[in-house]
Amino acid sequence: MSMFYRSTRDDSVKVTASQAILKGLAADGGLFVPESIPSLDKSLEELSKMNYKEVAYEVMKLMLDDFTEEELKSCIDRAYDSKFDTEEMTPLVKVENEYFLELFHGATIAFKDMALSILPHLLTTSAKKNNVKNEIVILTATSGDTGKAALAGFANVPGTKIIVFYPKNGVSPIQEKQMVTQKGDNTYVIGIKGNFDDAQTGVKNIFSDKELEKVMNDAGFQFSSANSINIGRLVPQIVYYVYAYAKLLANGEIKDGEKINVVVPTGNFGNILAAFYAKNMGLPINKFICASNENKVLYDFFTTGEYDRNREFVLTTSPSMDILISSNLERLIYRIAGNNAAKNAELMASLKSEGKYKITDDMKAQLADFYGNYATEAEDAATIKKIYEDCGYVIDTHTSVAATVYDKYRKETGDTTKTVIASTASPYKFTRSVMNAIDSKYDSMGDFELVDELSKISNVKVPNAIEEIRTAPVLHDTVCDSDKMCDEVKKILGI
Ligand SMILES: *Cc1c(COP(=O)(O)O)cnc(C)c1O
């Protein structure tokens, strides 16, 4: 074992991968980052002959090097199984000149499944390795997608319970139905009277309640988080970039060593950071094209070098990207500050107090591989319609942000490098927005009517995740006031 993780805010912190997974966030509020990023020890040629699980092992063994081969392979086997509706896990679909990397073939038809189907196993293995005897209680506040993906990932995983809070009137009907029909004896879903921020604040308060922590410990429980800043979510996301490259090579679409571009529809900056780590591990990537919706904080940051969250929050049709604080960007900031925790901590303190910070010219110069742009709501809808009409391929609203921004990049730069677009959700997850973009006549149809219509026009079978909820019984119907969340947790745990 030779790899350790450091905190982005305190140089004295040094933990193993499994400890970083267990902790999620460093005690100083910083994020865990690998001390140095290991290089792939298999050639691209060798990787091109492997299946998804084999590539996953080759990538993850380097980043999580305190896991034994047996432990890691067992986690991978349990994660990437028949929960996915294709053996390939992440099919690469060529549409005109681009390659859409479909990351939505898991249990909840969004890319979060790629990480959340393995995180529970990484977490329980980490607990065992570190002699944690308590049962792990995952506590999550969700605005929709993460909650369901976490529920699906943790359902029936021995040694865990998962409790999800969502704003009762703040998620889409399909999202709510997906959550309240969740099976599994260890799953709990609670609607709160309040918005997402109330749910989030409630969860944070429960996490930081020292007295509760003690009572929990005495009863044999401890909290953990499935939050996207956990390296147990970041590391599995590196895999599909390596796999996509390997597939392009295997299919003769690129030559060994040829650079590719990747386009990522971005919110919290986790997915695109994983691509950046893939490049650091040796994957030939030219540009990271960071695509934002109208919440274009990142576009402004890449353009000006100033990150400024002081602006109006826009509700868009790509809600999973409606974010003004891209938490994972901190890992990149730390890196371009020369792995300087003090400098990074200063910028993050400024973000907290002023809502903004500015990086130096030196730091900005290190962002040359990144290109940022954004898509307006109208552009997003127009791209969905255009790709459907030209090619018969239907993409979701988030993927369309990426496709729109890629189009702008292409026109601006004339760069013809082969390009992979991360396709982060199935169009079935956002059926109404997608169908409205294609034709306004769909406006009057009911949710499931639209689902059938989408299947007709796209020639894609309705995914299980949607079929299931048509008739699934509601199993969770608890609703509570936002200041009663802690009581609900205690009730569930019997403490
Ligand atoms: C979470 C999510 C994103 C944003 O990913 P980040 O890693 O937060 O940048 C994009 N699209 C979909 C569908 C998502 O669920």
TrEMBL record:
Cofactor annotation:
pyridoxal 5'-phosphate
Enumerate the UniProt keywords alphabetically.
Lyase, Pyridoxal phosphate
SUPFAM superfamilies for the chain: Tryptophan synthase beta subunit-like PLP-dependent enzymes
Protein family (similarity comment): Belongs to the threonine synthase family.
Please give the biological process terms from Gene Ontology that the record holds.
threonine biosynthetic process
Q: What organism is listed for this UniProt entry?
A: Lachnospira eligens
What terms describe the molecular function in GO for this protein? threonine synthase activity
InterPro entries this protein is in?
Answer: Thr_synth_N, Thr_synth_N_sf, Thr_synthase-like, TrpB-like_PALP, TrpB-like_PALP_sf
One Pfam family, short name please? Thr_synth_N
Q: Where is the Tryptophan synthase beta chain-like PALP domain?
A: 87-420
Enzyme Commission designation? 4.2.3.1
Which residues get modified to N6-(pyridoxal phosphate)lysine?
Answer: K112
Q: Is Isomerase set as a keyword in this record?
A: no
GO terms for cellular component:
cytoplasm
Provide the Threonine synthase N-terminal domain boundaries. Answer: 5-80
Top-level class of the enzyme under EC nomenclature: lyase
- List the protein's name: Threonine synthase
Task: Give the gene name.
Answer: thrC
